[in-house]
Amino acid sequence: MVVPPPPTSPGSSSSWQDAPAPASDANELAARRASHPPNSHGERTIMTIAIIGSGAIGHALAAQFARKKIDVLLANRRGPDSLADIVRELGATITATSVADALRSDVVFLAVPFTSVGDAVREAPAWDGRLVVDATNAIDFPAFTPTDLGGRPSTELVAETVPGARVVKAFNTIPAAVLAIDPASDGGRRVVFLSGDDTGANAEVATLIERLGFAAIDLGRLSEGGRLQQFGGALPVLDLILRPPARRSH
Ligand SMILES: NC(=O)c1ccc[n+]([C@@H]2O[C@H](COP(=O)([O-])OP(=O)(O)OC[C@H]3O[C@@H](n4cnc5c(N)ncnc54)[C@H](OP(=O)(O)O)[C@@H]3O)[C@@H](O)[C@H]2O)c1
């Protein structure tokens, strides 16, 4: 397992930069992005981030982005008007938009039922290496048992619906009510596990997790870490706090 060190200053280790002033709508975000061309390392200084799904997990994720004043688009099945209360509650860094708009972002969080993923990403343009963060769990209801996926990691199936995207599994192990609260807890930081088959994508998502104030723990590939992380694996529902080692007095 690799625990990436926290960035020395926000955004210093990647293209995630300090939170810009909130954008008023999705078009303004797109315009901002266009006005920040790639730097000499090919990095863009502003990344657009979207969450698809505004239920328990989507709302909790949006709350964490709002806490750090990071612009994020939020979309659901019913459309932007249905998100007015959440936007009012979380503030100006949250922009309600359509699913089609959200699907154009650099980073797309999937916070929808596992069985709805295919429908939710239907209108996506070419993924071209953009990041997808899979927060779903494959669960059979009402039995509340892991869905039989023929032994395949659930995020592998999600990845098949977004060809060309770099897919990372994250934020699926913590109950929504816990995910929503301040990750600084009991002298440490709440752990968010991640896994994926693209090490660069894992590192980018780990940086974002750390920027939100969580401790990122990279579990490696989906065939290994993904299985531990997914519903039915060893890690769901654990609420782990990473603390610096205690000092011993001799
Ligand atoms: N709840 C938890 O504690 C928890 C913890 C970890 C992981 N998860 C996983 O996170 C995912 C979301 O769970 P949840 O509890 O947040 O579910 P939820 O409260 O039922 O919310 C689901 C959201 O998905 C949206 N949605 C459904 N189909 C869609 C589609 N085709 N296009 C766009 N949006 C669509 C819904 O839109 P509308 O609002 O318009 O209906 C709703 O906002 C699930 O895969 C779940 O297993 C949940």
From TrEMBL:
The keyword NAD does not apply. Residues 48-137 form the Pyrroline-5-carboxylate reductase catalytic N-terminal domain. Pfam families: F420_oxidored. InterPro entries: NAD(P)-bd_dom_sf, P5C_Rdtase_cat_N, STEAP_metalloreductase. Residues 1-42 are annotated as: Disordered. The keyword Oxidoreductase applies. Keywords: Oxidoreductase. This is NADPH-dependent F420 reductase.
